[in-house]
Amino acid sequence: MNLVNQPAPRFSAPAVIEGEEIINDFSLDQYIGKKNVILFFYPKDFTFVCPTEILAFQEQLAVFESKETAVVGCSTDTEETHLAWLMTPKNKGGIEGVTFPMVADTAKTIATNYGVLGGDYTYDDRNNLVFEGAPICLRGTYLINKEGIVKHVSINDFPLGRNIDEYIRLVDALRYVEKHGEVCPANWEEGKEAMHETRESVANYLGKK
């Protein structure tokens, strides 16, 4: 399922905001026309790789916010489990201090609509509903622009942690493209030269390498 250049699937679900308050109707709609969004999915609360990623996003949260980009996390755990984890100190395996929204996808519909659920429902030979795979989220990350359109998707298997700096680079690239109408070549970073989509522009760019 390819969501790039498609509207991001909409949802309304429970979430913990500001690391301490549960709300029942969190939605990405609040960011339309105002902010880009990094929506990331992770497998489970109270695990090992997941807190390293979540805390890394928190460490860079001010950078994302300075670039008009919200960060939102999501897993299939309950909102109560999210809150318990958020209230657990880091030295005890918690993520205390995280302030961006943490969405609870207990129905697994958000993960399914975004294509990151780690398996599929099916039926066995007795027509009983079963699940093949892992009924939790893969490490999916979505960059959604201010119009609610998905501009980047990456999905990692459970053991493979993300590079948060790459998502900052992608936010920079998206903002540059939307502002200047140019395209960003390989390894582009903020402050580097971009190019127009013409043969002459590509030739000039490569000639300077």
Furnish the topology, listing elements before pairings:
Blueprint: E1 13-17, E2 21-26, E3 36-41, H1 49-59, H2 61-66, E4 69-75, H3 79-86, E5 102-104, H4 109-114, E6 117-123, E7 129-137, E8 139-144, E9 150-156, H5 164-180, H6 199-207
Parallel strand pairs: 3-4, 4-5
Antiparallel strand pairs: 1-2, 1-5, 3-8, 6-7, 8-9
Main location: cytoplasm
Active site: 50 (cysteine sulfenic acid (-soh) intermediate)
Function: Thiol-specific peroxidase that catalyzes the reduction of hydrogen peroxide and organic hydroperoxides to water and alcohols, respectively. Plays a role in cell protection against oxidative stress by detoxifying peroxides.
List keywords for this structure.
single chain, 209 residues, alpha+beta, Glutaredoxin, 2 domains, seven-stranded mixed beta sheet, two-stranded antiparallel sheet, 6 helices, 9 strands, 27% helix, globular
